[in-house]
Amino acid sequence: MVTLDNLLEVFSHHPPSTEKMDHYVAIRQAATTMAETILRHTAPCADQQAAIRHVREAMFTANAAVALDGKV
């Protein structure tokens, strides 16, 4: 949960450390695979684009979970 006490931590830049790079790469690869699957197996439409947007949001949120290391 975001609180006044951890607000700055949540909205700060967290440069990637060497030990976290493997996590970011794995998340990005999985998201790319999911997005490619959606594009290959659905018709171009608003729902397709919404699905891609949600995959991007999931990737960004997962990356934040790695960066914040459970602090929020």
Describe the structure.
With 72 residues, the protein is mainly α. The protein has one domain. The chain contains three helices and no strands. Helix 2 (18-41) runs antiparallel to helix 3 (46-68). The longest helix has 24 residues, at 18-41. The chain starts with 6 loop residues before the first helix and ends with a helix. 0% of the residues are buried. The mean pLDDT is 95.
Question: What labels would you give this structure?
Answer:
single chain; 72 residues; mainly alpha; 0% strand
- Estimate what percentage of residues fall within beta strands: under 5%
Overall mean confidence score, pLDDT: 95
Beginning-to-end CA distance, first to last residue: 5 Å
Structural class: mainly alpha
The profile of the biggest β sheet is: none
State the helicity in percent bands: over 70%
Order of helices and strands: HHH
> How many structural domains?
1
Instruction: Give the count of helical stretches.
Output: 3
Low-pLDDT sequence parts: none
Roughly how many Å is the radius of gyration?
15 Å
Note the overall shape. Answer: elongated
- Quantity of strands, as a count: 0
Q: Can you describe this structure in just a few lines?
A:
By secondary structure, the chain is mostly helical. The protein has helices at 7-10, 18-41, 46-68.
